[in-house]
Design goal:
Radius of gyration: 28 Å
Distance between the termini: 61 Å
Helix content: 25-40%
Shape: elongated
Number of domains: 2
Structural class: alpha/beta
Strand order of the largest sheet: 1-2-3-5-4-6-7-8-9
CATH class of the largest domain: Alpha Beta
Number of strands: 18
CATH topology of the largest domain: Rossmann fold
């Protein structure tokens, strides 16, 4: 086991051996030593812009938090911060659920010489079954110290060999241990292949598959994971053999991160050992985007504007005994390249806080020399810490032989999976239930609401959700090249959306005709270069006297960000991983990628307004794929677009939450949007401006039929009709060969 990626059974076979570097080639490398520096006036290294922007944002967030920690000088100030962190972390992850009956059942027992394993099933929510092993000592009388054991991202969950070894040894030493399967692992896999019975996504993949959906609801996967831990502790404490005053918690890898969450949120835990979890701040030292991002529950969405980072989860446990275990082998493989430095930095923060609370000896740090695993050195250090604070020091740290058993003996369910043996409510079903309860459908049924009133309501909420700034700096627009041919003039330009971000584009206009031209702004998820193909779908548009402005919003086309300078094993997977990494980093900053792209879009409108060859009242917007989401939101926020056409764009966000499978990527998600609105609401807010939806898509990218789209947009159609413009909202399905004609019809009729 050389990394958590292998630990999670992730396939590294396709990993590229070489990755793009973070630096541009040295153009002057073969020149004379006294050659002048290259002219940067037409620099096109747009791939550096977004990383530069994120580095500045992260460093600013880091400086604010470090200043707040440096200002702590008394016990009262520390305790005030701890209370703030506990409250805010609950808010960030979605809040606690209502406690309902656990309905625990012991479905079997495995008897061993010095302990027994009780196979337990309880309900963390009604009809949401949790499979668990309870290790009960049998040679000593109770009460026993209790150990809560959240699990790392192992496919077989509580049955992973080295986890079992830890629990067996703790039980032999007189500890009562409860290990429970999380969603997506062990007997609780949620996305099962009907042919193989195996997970479609793997454990980490299942967490992120559900976690992305939860973001749309204003919640996180950490909410489910932490709640399972709290309900597991409720069960552990319900057992009369457990001493409620001696409760410990330990988990490894992703279970280490969950130990961090539970340390912050669960006051009944008295001692914690965090083992090789994500013990580094996202806004950490030497930040290089996307930084120390991970799967869904390990990213504290929205935390950095509050001055909270991962280290605060551990800080909130002070002054109770806390032990951190890490391995330097994880740097650049399991976690970010600066993992060791980041972990030691957090430990230094903890040392200061514990000293202010007169508990400097109650926080410790240990480095295992071995790769990522709950190895012997980690286990021995864990026994020693628990013995010191929960039991007796003379219990020792020795281990006896591992006692193995086949899965069919260890499983709590008859089939090895809750969903195929017990049924109950699935993770997909839970998310869908929450989505149906959240969407405020009554808004569009208000017959007294005018189009302008609807826009005003949604604009305020949308600006907040997208975290759009009010200020707009200088565009600093440049024309980098201008050429004529094939009946057109093609200008290559760029402008600044904000200080560090340039938006490059093409401005294409008919040759030999006088402007100003009615202009179509083209915004595509695939980037601007589609308009330069031969032949192109815009050829007819140009022949009929329209100009076309096509742009690469940040992170798209030529502005796709460079790879980080280090950590190829951590970052070097398929391209969506890098894009999702940027999205997680931006969400943690409270600045969703979609919001940043909407800002770029609004600046595009400013750029067009600055051009004398554009007929400004005749500006129309064509958005393709995710570019349609940007265009729709931008047009709701700004009245300048005369008409909008959305092509191959997601029809609604709610369908993504309700689907078990979806292809929509994280950069197009906005945290909490379904608490306030969905895409049909935004379309309704465009009335009376013409809006056409062409080949609208479902959650898996499939083209929906006109009847399917109309069913989802019934309220939007009613709103257009009430505004007296029912014909201006249209839904079309056309094959690729007819798309250009649709574009032209839309331009002419709008």
């Amino acid at each position: 086991m050389f990394s958590r990626r292998r630990f999670l059974q992730t396939n590294l076979a396709g990993l590229a051996l070489t990755l793009p570097g973070s630096e541009t080639p040295d153009e002057g490398g073969l020149g004379r030593p006294d050659s002048p520096p290259p002219d940067k006036s037409s620099d096109r290294a747009y791939w550096d812009d977004w990383p530069t922007y994120l580095i500045a944002e992260m460093n600013e967030a880091r400086a604010r938090r470090k200043a707040a920690l440096a200002a702590l000088s008394s016990e009262a100030q520390v305790r005030q911060r701890i209370e703030m962190v506990r409250k805010k972390v609950w808010e960030l992850i979605g809040g606690p659920f209502e406690k309902t009956p656990l309905n625990p059942v012991v479905v079997g027992t495995i008897e061993r010489k010095t302990y027994r394993i009780e196979k337990v099933i309880f309900e963390s929510h009604p009809q949401v079954f949790v499979t668990a092993h309870l290790y009960v000592p049998t040679l000593a009388p109770p009460p026993f110290p209790g150990i809560l054991a959240p699990l790392g991202h192992t496919s077989n969950g509580k049955e992973y060999r080295n986890y079992q070894y830890l629990y067996q040894t703790l039980a032999r030493k007189g500890y009562m241990v409860l290990a429970f399967d999380p969603f997506g692992q062990g007997e609780r896999k949620q996305y099962l292949d009907p042919k193989t019975g195996e997970s479609l996504y793997g454990s980490t993949g299942e967490h992120s598959q559900a976690g992305r959906q939860l973001l749309l609801l204003g919640a996180t996967f950490a909410q489910y994971r932490a709640w399972d831990g709290i309900r597991a502790l409720d069960y552990l404490l319900s057992r009369p053999e457990v001493d409620p005053q001696r409760i410990g918690c330990t988990g490894h890898s992703g279970g280490g991160t969950m130990t961090m969450y539970l340390a912050a949120l669960e006051p009944r835990i008295q001692v914690a050992v965090e083992v090789e979890g994500n013990s580094e701040n996202l806004a950490g030292p030497a930040y290089d985007p996307p930084g120390a991002v991970a799967d869904a529950e390990q990213n504290l969405v929205g935390s950095l504007p509050l001055g909270i980072d991962r280290g605060d989860l551990l800080l909130a446990f002070a002054p109770k005994p806390l032990f951190l275990i890490y391995t330097p082998q994880d740097a650049g493989t399991t976690y970010s390249p600066v993992y060791e430095q980041g972990t030691r930095e957090i430990f230094e923060e903890l040392q200061k806080v514990y000293s202010l609370l007169a508990a400097k000896d109650e926080v410790g740090l240990f480095a295992s020399p071995l790769p990522h695993d709950f190895d012997f050195f980690c286990r021995r250090a864990t026994y020693d810490w628990f013995n010191r604070w929960l039991a007796k020091k003379d219990l020792g740290t020795d281990e006896t032989e591992f006692e193995s058993a086949p899965p069919q003996v260890l499983n709590c369910t008859s089939t090895g999976q809750v969903l195929t043996s017990l049924g109950g409510r699935s993770l997909v079903g839970l998310n869908a239930e929450r989505a149906r309860a959240l969407v405020p459908a009554a808004l569009l049924s208000d017959a007294s609401l005018s189009p302008q009133a609807l826009r005003d309501r949604l604009r305020e909420k949308l600006r907040s959700l997208l975290a759009l700034p009010q200020e707009r700096g200088s565009l600093e627009a440049r024309v980098l090249s201008s050429n004529r041919g094939q009946g057109r003039t093609v200008e290559e330009f760029d402008f600044r959306s904000e200080a560090q971000i340039r938006v490059p584009g093409w401005f294409v206009k008919p040759l030999g005709k006088d402007g100003p031209f009615p202009t179509m702004l083209y915004v595509s998820e695939q980037g601007k270069d589609g308009v330069m193909e031969e032949p192109s779908q815009i050829d007819e548009v140009l022949r009929h006297g329209f100009a076309v402005c096509a742009v690469d919003l940040r992170g798209l086309g030529i502005t796709a960000p460079r790879y980080p300078a280090a950590g190829p094993l951590f970052y070097g997977f398929e391209d969506p991983d890098i894009k999702d990494g940027y999205a997680w980093a931006c969400l943690t900053l409270g600045k969703p990628v979609l919001g940043q792209r909407v800002r770029d879009f609004l600046r595009c409108l400013d750029y067009l307004e600055s051009r004398a060859d554009v007929d400004h009242p005749q500006t129309r917007v064509l958005g393709v794929g995710g570019g349609g989401l940007v265009s729709l939101m931008g047009a709701v926020l700004d009245d300048r677009p005369r008409a909008i056409l959305l092509h191959q764009t997601l029809a609604d966000f709610r369908s993504v939450v309700e689907a078990g499978e979806y292809s929509s990527r994280l950069p197009w998600f906005v945290s909490g949007i379904l608490r306030e609105m969905d895409l049909p609401y935004l379309v309704a807010a465009l009335a009376p401006r013409p809006c056409w939806l062409l080949n609208a898509t479902g959650p898996k990218g499939e083209t929906l039929s006109i009847s399917q789209v109309k069913a989802g947009y019934k309220a939007s159609l009613d709103f257009y009709s009430r505004a007296g413009r029912g014909s201006q909202l249209r839904f079309l399905v056309q094959p690729d060969g007819e798309i250009g004609k649709v574009f032209l019809s839309w331009l002419r009729e709008s």
